[in-house]
Amino acid sequence: MVTHLFFADDSLLFCKASTQECQILMAILDLYEAASRQKINADKSSIFFSTNTPSELKDEIMEVMGPMQDSKHNKYLGLPSIIGKSKKEVFAEIKEKVAKKLSGWKEKMLSIGGKEILIKAVAQAIPTYAMSFFSYPKGFVMKLKA
Question: Would you say 81 and 48 are in contact if contact means Cβ atoms under 8 Å apart?
């Protein structure tokens, strides 16, 4: 059974990792292209596989799906697509982004008000954006506050 999520002009389609379901998915995408007269850009499309999917099955599915690439679980909209057991590694990157922003501002001669505006507008936005999708570990929140 194909399920889906929509984000702005992006679509995430989910199906079981089988050649039969992927053939059905490709048929659905072909129908969409014919009905809407919009072409799906395979160069901007990618496939996510579960870590439990055997490599032979991945190869079969990749043949069915055509020019789409295996995403290797990269990022989507600036956030990790998949978070494993170690959340510390994933969220450490968010702390690094905030630290980079703050260190760049220290060099600038800004008033206290200017720094406050930058912190509210940018430094708070980075972790807040990720918080809208993920629940942070308590230890990470304490480090972020420091």
Answer: yes
